[in-house]
């Protein structure tokens, strides 16, 4: 009975934790909970097999030791949970998902080890003290995590678009080390002082490693935020230049209006109404060309395109647009502007490196329930790609990182390619409203 209560407490907290460490969920909240509950139930059914075999007399202690059977079913459990978390719950790359999974399992191993040392037991069968410690230690970590650290951790986690293989490998090695400690702990018949010092030192080392990992993630998050601010500053400067041009056009229109009025008055005196209509039509066409072109019904994107259209015109770059976009609900205007502005910024910079005819073509619109942004531009022929991302020879790809991190908020797919002097950037964003 004591073992059953211990298992129930453990499983309840496993379910709560697994449902709250998925930074980039693949499924809805309800489906995520059901998958975790189903996986936990399957795992517990599997772990009951050796107990049943021993109870039925099919498997004796002489043939298979408790430690060995514990080790085998521990591996089975890890395989089940890895498949569940990395391939069913998380939309992140499996290697990246392993960081969160092994981080949680390391935390659980610390809780298990502390209970084992404090109670001078192996926290297996359980009693009132062990139950209280399991509940208390889990809540002591879970509550601060949910209140203060979860959102920040998720934001930093989503910002990491490269280099996650290394932090995942470090996290996996920490977990393997802790697992070996726990196996040895279960084999021990008493907690000698040297062993206690050894296992506590291992826990302290693991905590120090994770502190360094989180510091690295925090620095990466800060760097990405600074990069986004720099990109947004460029966009705002382009907008300011666009507004200045509009102001200059308005002043010129007011200045020239008196002259145009005189021409119309002369036609009116002669009662040459056809000439008046023809003149006013020509005047209207030229004036409309001075002001912002309405690229689409989305004001933010239309303004962005107008600002970069001016940049293209100043640098002798032809800009072609195919934008079928109204106000978006699933994708915020701020994030969409960040993506489009960085794409056009990179496209213009790419064009400036080429000779001859320069052009940029961008299309934005919904397709199959998703928002698709495709931009093509002339480029040099020897673009270097690293892990599928274009590598800037002179500095870090600020725009590329900003596009990736923003698209990640919407489980987006970003693809870069280049062929025959044409660079293509394609971004596909999922509707965040439909994912809820």
Largest sheet: 5 strands, mixed
Query: Structural class, please?
Result: alpha+beta
Question: What Rg is obtained from the alpha carbons, in whole angstroms?
Answer: 31 Å
Query: Strand content of the residues, in percent?
Result: 5-15%
Number of helices: 12
Distance between the termini: 40 Å
Following the backbone from N to C, one meets helices and strands in this order, namely: HHHHHHHHHEHEEEEHEEH
Shape: elongated
Roughly how much helix do the residues carry, as a percent range? 55-70%
Mean pLDDT, to the nearest integer, reads: 82
Tell me the total number of β-strands: 7
List segments where confidence is low: pLDDT < 50 over at least 5 consecutive residues.
Answer: none
How would you write the strand order of the largest sheet? 1-2-3-7-6
């Amino acid at each position: 009975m004591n073992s059953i209560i211990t298992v129930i407490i453990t499983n309840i907290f496993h379910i709560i934790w697994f449902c709250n460490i998925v930074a980039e969920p693949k499924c809805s909240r309800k489906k995520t909970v059901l998958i975790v509950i189903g996986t936990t139930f399957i795992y517990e059914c599997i772990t009951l097999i050796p107990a049943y075999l021993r109870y039925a007399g099919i498997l004796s202690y002489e043939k298979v030791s408790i430690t060995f059977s514990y080790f085998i079913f521990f591996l089975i459990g890890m395989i089940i949970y890895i498949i569940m978390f990395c391939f069913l719950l998380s939309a992140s790359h499996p290697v990246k998902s392993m960081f969160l999974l092994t981080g949680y399992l390391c935390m659980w191993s610390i809780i298990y080890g502390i209970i084992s040392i404090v109670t001078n037991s192996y926290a297996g069968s359980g009693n009132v003290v062990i139950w209280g410690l399991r509940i208390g230690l889990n809540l002591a970590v879970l509550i601060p995590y949910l209140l203060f650290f979860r959102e920040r951790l998720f934001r930093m986690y989503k910002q990491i678009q490269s280099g996650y293989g290394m932090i995942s490998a470090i996290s996996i090695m920490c977990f393997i080390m802790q697992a070996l400690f726990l196996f040895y702990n279960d084999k021990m018949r008493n907690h000698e002082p040297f062993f206690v010092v050894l296992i506590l030192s291992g826990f302290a080392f693991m905590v120090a490693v994770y502190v360094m990992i989180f510091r690295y993630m925090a620095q990466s998050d800060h760097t990405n935020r600074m990069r986004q601010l720099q990109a947004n500053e460029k966009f705002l400067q382009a907008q300011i230049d666009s507004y200045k041009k509009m102001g200059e056009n308005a002043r010129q229109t007011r200045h020239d209006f008196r002259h145009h009025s005189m021409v119309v008055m002369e036609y009116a005196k002669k009662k040459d109404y056809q000439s008046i209509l023809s003149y006013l039509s020509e005047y209207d066409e030229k004036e409309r060309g001075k002001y912002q072109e309405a690229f689409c019904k989305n004001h933010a994107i239309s303004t962005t395109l107008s600002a970069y259209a001016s940049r293209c015109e100043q640098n002798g770059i032809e800009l072609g647009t195919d934008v079928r976009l109204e106000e978006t609900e699933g994708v915020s205007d701020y994030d969409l502007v960040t993506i489009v502005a960085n794409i056009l910024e990179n496209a213009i910079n790419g064009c400036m490196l080429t000779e001859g005819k320069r052009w940029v073509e961008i299309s934005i619109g919904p397709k199959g329930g998703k928002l698709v942004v495709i931009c093509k531009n002339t480029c040099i022929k020897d673009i270097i790609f690293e892990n599928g991302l274009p590598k800037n020879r002179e500095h870090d790809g600020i725009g590329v990182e900003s596009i990736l991190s923003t698209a990640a908020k919407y489980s987006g797919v970003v693809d870069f390619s280049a062929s025959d002097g044409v660079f293509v950037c394609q971004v596909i964003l999922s509707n965040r409203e439909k994912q809820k």
